[in-house]
Amino acid sequence: MTPGKWIAWAAASGAALIFSLPLFSVTATGASSTSNSKDDGRGTCYSCHEEVKALKEGSPHAQLACTTCHSKLDEHLKSYENKPVTIIDQAMCGSCHKMEFSSSMAVNYESPAHSEKGIPGGRSPVMDKLLAPYGFTIEHNEPRSHAFMVTDQFVVDRFAGGRFQYKNGWYGVDAVGKTWDILADKGPDFKMAETGKGGNPTCIQCKTSDHILKWKFLGDKDPKATWDRTSDVIAVAKDTHNPVGCIHCHDPHGTQPRIVRDELINQIEKGSTMFAGKDGKTDLKVISFRDGFRKIGIMQKPNATLMCAQCHVEYACGKGFEFDSGKPVGFDDLRTNHMPLTQVKELLAHYKKLNFYDFKHAVTGARLVKLQHPEAETYFGSVHQQAGVTCADCHMPPMKDTEGKTYRTHMMVRPKHHIQESCSRCHPKWTTEQKLYQLNAAQNYVRGKIRKSEYWLSQLIDTYAIAKRFGVDEATLAKAREKHEEAHVLWEWWTAENSDGFHNPQLARESLAASIVASREGVALLNKALDERGKK
C-alpha cells in the first residue's frame, strides 16, 4: 500500500475508531434510568429544552437521566431563576470513560516544566530584545500537557506578579488535579521582583471549561453572566478549578463532536472557510442556548483539527492600541477576543484592517502584534492536512490499555516520542529511526531559519538605534519601523507556533525568508541614510 493510501486509510479508520472507542460507548455506570423510563422526568425538561432532546435521544447517552449531571432540578422547576447545579467536572465523564480520563490527566514527562523559550538553548534566544518591553519577556515557557494548562498559566511570572505559587514548592510542579489543591494564593499585597500582572479573563477561557455556563458568548457583559472580558482576572482565576474538560470537544447530552469556544464559532458563522470541506462549507451546526447567551457548534463527523483550533490558534485577548490613532483598546472592546484565522503572510494586513496591535517596541517604536500559538492555521494547507490527517491522528494516537483494549489517548503526545503509534500507521515502510531522522531534519532546518531571522531583526533594531542617535530623518525612520512590523510577524509566528515548523515546513521556510528580507531592507535604508549624513 502506498503512503498516500495509508494516509487516506488512517484518516478514515481514525474517524471510525473514534466512535468505536470507550469515549463514545455507553457503559452508563451509575445511570439512574433509561430513555424508555416514564418516571425519570426528562419529558418535563424537554418541554423547555428541545435542543437538548434533539442531541440526547437516539444517542449513546440516551439512557442517562438528566439527574446524572444535574441536581436541584425540583427548585429549578419551581422557578426558572433557580438554576440547577450542573456537574461539568471531567471526573464525571471519567467514571465511565476511564482510560480517556486517566490519560488526559497523566503527566507527560516528555514535556519539561518551565522550559523558558528566551534563553540560549530555547526556541527564541533573542526574545527579550525582540519583544521588549512586552510581558512575555518576563517568562515565556514551552507548553506542557493539558493537565497543567491552568496551573502553568497561573504560576508564570507574567500572570499575577508571582502571587500564585505551588503549595509544596517545586515538589508540586508535576501535581495534577484541582487548581487550588495544587496552588496557594499569597495574597493581594504579594509581589515578586521581575514579574508582571498581565493575566486576562479571555485567555483563561481556553484553559478551562469551568466557566461555560458563567461566560456569555464572546465574553460580553450580561446580568446573567458571572464573568466577562472586563472582570477582575484574579477573581476569575480563583473560580477556576479544572483544566479544559471533555465538554469542550464532546457534547455531554449526546456525545456528538463539538466546539464551544465562542470566537471560533463566531468566525465560522461570519464565513471563515479555514476548516471547510471541499464544498467550501464547514460541517458545523450552531445551536444557541438561553436566547443567545451561549452557543455551541455540533459536527456530524469528528474533526479533531477544528476541535483543537478552539485554543491552538493565533488570537488577540489582551489590551492593545489602534494602528491609525494609537488610541488604547480595552477589554470592553470585542477586539480583545478575536481570532484572525488567517495565514502568517496575511496576518499583519489583517490586524491593520482590524486596527489593532499589542504594543510598541521599546527601541524602534514599531507597532507590533504579539502572537500566541497558531498551530491550526500553520497546519492548514500542509501536506498532512491535505491528505486528511487531523491533530488527533498524530497527537492522540490509538493505544492499548493493560487489558489489551484499544482507546485513543487524551494525553496529547509528542509524535517524535511515539513514532510507532503516531507515524508508522501511515508510513510503514520507514523504520522508527528513519522517521525520527526525517522529522528532526525538518525541525533543524526551520530552527536555523528562525535564528537567522532573529539575527536580522536584531540588526534592524540596533541600526535603528544608531540612526536615531545620529539624527536620521523621521521619514526614513518611519519606513524602517514599517519593515520592523513586517519582519516581526513573519518571525514571531514560528516561535509562538509549537512544532518548530514541522506542521508546515514549506510555509515556515517562505515566511522566515520573507522576514529576513524585510529586516535586511530596513537595515539597508538606515545604513544608506547614515552614509549620506556622514558625507555632509
Key descriptive features of the protein:
39% helix, 13 strands, two-stranded antiparallel ribbon, metal-binding, 536 residues
In a few lines, what is going on in this structure?
By secondary structure, this protein is mostly helical.
Tell me what you see in this structure:
With 536 residues, this protein is mainly α. It contains 21 helices and 13 strands. The strands form six sheets. It has a three-stranded antiparallel β-sheet, covered by helices on one side. Strands 1-2 form a two-stranded antiparallel ribbon. A two-stranded antiparallel sheet has the order 3-4. Strand 6 (285-289) and strand 7 form a beta hairpin.
Topology:
Elements: H1 3-20, H2 42-46, H3 50-56, E1 70-71, H4 73-78, E2 85-86, H5 90-94, H6 98-104, H7 127-130, H8 149-155, E3 164-166, H9 179-182, E4 183-185, H10 201-204, H11 233-238, E5 258-259, H12 262-269, E6 285-289, E7 294-298, H13 304-308, E8 320-321, E9 328-329, H14 344-354, E10 359-360, E11 367-368, H15 375-379, H16 383-386, H17 391-395, E12 398-400, E13 406-408, H18 419-422, H19 432-469, H20 474-496, H21 505-535
Helix pairs in contact: 14-20, 19-20, 19-21, 20-21
Keywords: Calcium, Heme, Iron, Metal-binding, Oxidoreductase, Signal
Main location: other
EC number: 1.7.2.2
